Amino acid sequence: MMILAFRICFRAFDVCVPDDVLVEEEQSNSLPSLMTPSITSGMSSSMDMPRKRKGSTDNQLFNNPECAAFQRSVTYLFKCLCREPHSQIEKRRRDKMNNLIDKLSAMIPTCNPMSRKLDKLTVLRMAVQHLKSLKGSASSFSEASSKPSFLPEEELKHLVLKAADGFLFVVGCDRGKIVFVSESVTKILNYSRAELIGQSLFDYIHPKDMGKVKEQLSASELHPRERLIDAKTGLQVQADLPIGASRLCSGARRSFFCRMKYNKIPVKIEEKETQANTSKKKESQKYCTVHCTGYMRSWPTSQMGAEGEGEGDKQDSSYFSCLVAVGRVHSHSAPQVNGEVRVKPTEFVTRYAMDGKFTFVDQRATTILGYLPQELLGTSCYEYFHQDDLLHLADRHRKVLRSREKIETNCYKFKTKYGSFVTLQSQWFSFVNPWNKEVEYIVSTNTVISYDNSRTARSGHKSEQSGNSKASEDCKKSLPVIPGISSTSGTMIYAGSIGTQIANELLDFNKLNSSPSSGNVSPFSLTQEKSPQTLNQITNSVPNGETSDMEIPGKSSSDGEPQGASFPGGDSLMGENSQLDLDSVVGPSLNSFSTDEAAMAVIMSLLETDTNLGEAVDFEEMHWSL
Amino acid sequence: MQEERGDTHWSQAISSVLQGNLCWHHRHAASRGTPQDAMTADKEKRRAISREAARRRRRVESDVFGDLSRLLPLQPSVRAHLDKPSVIRLTLSYIRLQTLLKETAGSHEELGHGARYRHGGEAQDGCLFELGKETEGLDPLDENSMYLKILEGFLMVLSTLGDMIFLSDNVSKYMGLSQTELMGHNIFEYTHPCDHEEIRHNLRLTAELGCSQKRDFVVRIKSALTHRGRVGNLKSTTWKVLHCQGRVKLCAASSSVSCVLLTCRPLPLSHTLLSTHTFTSQHSMDMRFTYCDQRVTSLLGYRPEELLGRSIYDLCHTLDTSCLNKNHLNLCLKSQSVSGRYRMLVRSGGYVWVESHSAVIPGVQPSRSRPRPNPSQPLCILCVTYILSGVEEPSLQLSLDQTFQRYLR
Question: How far is CA B16 from CA B39, B59, B236, in A?
């Protein structure tokens, strides 16, 4: 209903806006035609306050009173026409300026204690004073350097490293010797600079990443092994193509990931990530993933000084080449921790195909269920459900396939490898491909409620708690849920077929709705196919009360379909509604575009609107507003 | 101060003149007896005076503006072309930046870092000088300029309201607009409207994002650069996709200096050296493989041809679904994306950590011949996937595919 209201508003707005624009255009168009030299002077006088006085004195020069009168009237006319926009512009300018001055006065300490509002000039003067004092304290950086800059280089460096959360390092290409590393490394890897400089980088790299780093260091800029990729076409280009040529000379870019050792014993006050990592005991977790980006650089040895440690490096070649790079700790540096925080030990994650077959099982399932993942994979989850729960779970299964929301199941019993039952509660959601809106699979987060067999007491209580809102509809629906099966519920059927049947129902449902079913169809052509139909809807839903009449039959017809009927109305309606709305937003504009770029834009806008509608949060909000 | 005094002096002068004027007016009225004339003349006089006063006021004001702009670290050529609002805007940025730097030093002090930090800075310079001798190419000045060059992007400091407090001067290389043109403006004026919510979310200080102070997002920003690298005007801007990474700098003392430090850079797709630990793939827009290079076999065990038509979602660890989903949405909306870390299942069992950098491109035949972007071809997604780790838990079979592989072997 909300959407309808919106649409009507939108229409009304559409009608309004052009009128406004038209009026303005008329005004501005009519101006030049009226203009004569004397009038323009009059107009300019009316436009500019200080000059207005001058203009009025000029007017007195006119001896002919008629002429003056004429001019006055014309000026008045112009005032009427022009004053509004011009004064608006002036006002905006003044407001902007006042706003800036206010901000300024808020930033200047000497202005703050004064309770009264200061005038512009005073604020400006104080700003000058403040700047002078800042300059004094900020030393001679900007004065001394030939090129003034807002930030002294030294500070800039710190900010960059802070923002990047990384460290700069320079590594000789031939032996991997660390020639230079910035101070910030101590905060990141817990090694001091002195420890690192002069050492081989390879001592600090994960053994399995050695080859990777060596490769990056050895492939110097003139090597033919260089394989670059052209972002425009996605094709690999040879290094000798002009695109990279200039770049390669100045130093080929490098971007790679490697795992670097860090000191377990924090020397300094360390950060959260490292702390989390240090608590880990596993050997591999002494490493953190570092993203290195930088470029190759070489200096002719002739320029190099005779002294220093570089001697050994430079004797064999006339160039000393090295990698200059920033290493930044990967922003998701401790995902293992994240994963385990998100999933409690009594939880495990599984993934079902649409028909309820296990396609992914988290290894934690083994400790809970006794099955190895490979024992569950490929089998239908219905084979493990207790018979009493089948109807309920089948209902939830159906629901999850048609809804984007997370669906909670009641407590149910799951047969373990040892024949006993574990009481689980699951949260299911169907993962929908963002592009074509097809259900990829169902993700289920399963929580263990209890291991014991006294199910009646426990789960009965629990289901009362969790499902009291849904209880009534569950009861109502438990019978017609599985039409094919309800008749045979007494007899034993192959449980796995329940899932298949539900999946087929959805496919049929989709086919009936002629919604996207094939992933190979380009979404653009898809939307084009749809557009005439949606166009119809639009032309029909011209802005008045009829819109609501138009929409509701559409909904009820989809409701009338057998599968739709088995759902609580709200959910399926929601889906329908957002879909329709989206189409009608994008539909009409499609026809007017022909070029590829335009098509692209439409696809993008389609997606934008679509995802906005599709996101869980929005969805919920809409749900409430409905 | 002097000027202020001058000002009061002036106002006194005005008032005395006005008084004189009044006297004159009285005399005039008495002698001539034509108040009308007197009135107009009087008005004239007043006008002249206030005109003069206004002129004077404006002169004083522009003098102060001149002083202000001279105090800003600007090049003379830039300074000459600044209008008044810009002067204030830049002054604001300058003051904010200085407070920020002071706070930074302060916060280090608080943490017990301060002394060492600053000392470290000095030592670094000294050390660098030595190093400079050592390698000769690394003189300190060079080293400083190196940071931005290595970054291949620019530094941006945002206030919590989205004001761009600072931008490094190489921003012009990426946006086609100069540092002075942009600084002090609001980021929302220069970013794609559809990304505003995300930016706002990232500017929020930690509350919802838990304790994480890190920021990592992709944003579309206005760029006045034309395709040939020339600077066009602001009206004809294109959207440029930038990957913003950084962290929040919180200041407990006052929220006005809390800010977000970000490095913004275009995705490094175009100059990726494809190492043996990287593979490229092309996907249809729904993330099904349409092409994959040979290296995937050595890295993940899959043969390229068996991947064709498969969805990337089948290959990922279920716990990383949301990460990939976000990546996919970014691609659909913004056309480029960085996935962040996620797990890909290895054919024979277990998984590896990977990160993908991807872009939406017009589809081409993945042939070795000349690239021919065909406009009639549907769009596709190009991914460069970096392998970050070795195979973890290689004995585990997590997905159906992996068990199949086991049986088939």
Answer: 19, 22, 56
Which CATH number does the domain housing residue A196 bear? 3.30.450.20
Q: Average pLDDT of chain A?
A: 61
Preferred mutation among A51, A158, A160, A602 to probe B, highest tally of B CBs within 10 A: A160
Span of A407-416, A588-597, B55-64, B386-395 with lowest mean pLDDT:
A588-597
Mean pLDDT of A417-423: 85
CA distances from A228 to A233, A247, A253, B243, B301 (A): 12, 12, 10, 20, 24
B131 touches chain A (CB under 8 A): yes
Task: Give the pLDDT confidence score for residue B145 in this predicted structure.
Answer: 67
Any chain B CB within 8 A of the CB of A56? no
* Co-location of A361 and A213 in the same domain: no
Interchain CB distance below 8 Å, B274 and A134: no
Residue B318 in tokens = 């279920």
- ipTM for the assembly: 0.74
- Candidate from B169, B272, B286 with C-beta closest to A436: B286
Mean pLDDT computed over B29-38: 61
Mean pLDDT of B212-233: 74
Work out how many CB contacts closer than 8 A connect A with B.
Answer: 377
Same domain, A254 and A371: no
Q: Cβ contacts (< 8 Å) between B313 and chain A: which residues?
A: 431, 433, 440-441
**pLDDT tens digit sequence for B109-154:** 433 333 333 333 333 443 443 444 344 444 444 566 677 777 778 8
* B44, B124, B150, B308: best to mutate for the A interface, most A CBs within 10 A: B150
CB B222 within 8 A of CB B208: no
Q: Do A274 and B99 form a contact (C-beta atoms < 8 A)?
A: no
Give the pLDDT confidence score for residue A570 in this predicted structure: 32
Whether B49 contacts chain A with CB within 8 A: no
Q: Which of A417, A435, A451 is the last residue of a domain?
A: A451
Q: Same domain, yes or no, for A369 and A424?
A: yes
| A95 in the same domain as A198 | no
Gap from A304 CA to chain B (nearest CA, Å): 5
Verify whether the Cβ–Cβ distance A97 to B85 is below 8 Å: yes
Q: Does A61 touch chain B (CB under 8 A)?
A: no
Q: Of residues A570 and A188, which shows the higher confidence score?
A: A188
CATH of the domain at A78: 4.10.280.10
Which own/partner pairs from B333-336 qualify as long-range (CB within 8 Å, at least 24 positions apart)? B333/A604, B333/A607, B333/A608, B333/A611, B333/B194, B334/B192, B334/B195, B334/B218, B334/B219, B334/B220, B334/B241, B335/A604, B335/B241, B335/B359, B335/B360, B336/B218, B336/B241, B336/B243, B336/B267, B336/B269, B336/B360
**A554 assigned to some structural domain:** no
| Same domain, residue pair A160 and A295 | yes
With 0.80 as the threshold, say if the pTM is over it.
no
Using a CB-CB distance cutoff of 8 angstroms, which residues of chain B are in contact with residue A322?
Answer: 135
Say which residue, A383 or A44, is predicted with more confidence.
A383
Position B227 scores a pLDDT of 59
* Containing structural domain, residue A91: 69-136
Compute the mean pLDDT over every residue in chain B, rounded to the nearest whole number. Answer: 74
Across the interface, do A339 and B333 touch by the CB < 8 Å criterion?
A: no
- The answer on pLDDT for A415 being more than 80 is yes
End-to-end CA distance of chain A: 6
Question: Is A435 in the B-facing interface, judged by CB distances under 8 Å?
Answer: yes
Residue A101 confidence class, pLDDT cut points 50, 70, 90:
confident
Shared domain for A294 and A379, answered yes or no, is no
In chain A, residues with a C-beta closer than 8 Å to the C-beta of B378 are 522, 524
Are residues A93 and A187 both part of a single domain? Answer: no
Residue A129 lies in a domain: yes
What is the number of domains present in chain A?
3
Chain B residues closer than 8 Å to A332 by CB: 216, 340-341
The per-residue pLDDT for range A285-300, each reduced to its tens digit, is 478 888 888 887 776 6
Which of A423, A451, A479 corresponds to the end of one domain?
A451
Cβ separation of A434 and B332 shorter than 8 Å?
Answer: yes
Q: Is residue A192 part of a domain?
A: yes
Same domain, yes or no, for A120 and A216?
no
What integer is the mean pLDDT of B260-270?
Answer: 79
- Residue A365: inside a domain: yes
Rg (CA), chain A: 36
Q: How far off is chain A from B211, nearest CA to CA, in Å?
A: 9
DSSP B57: H
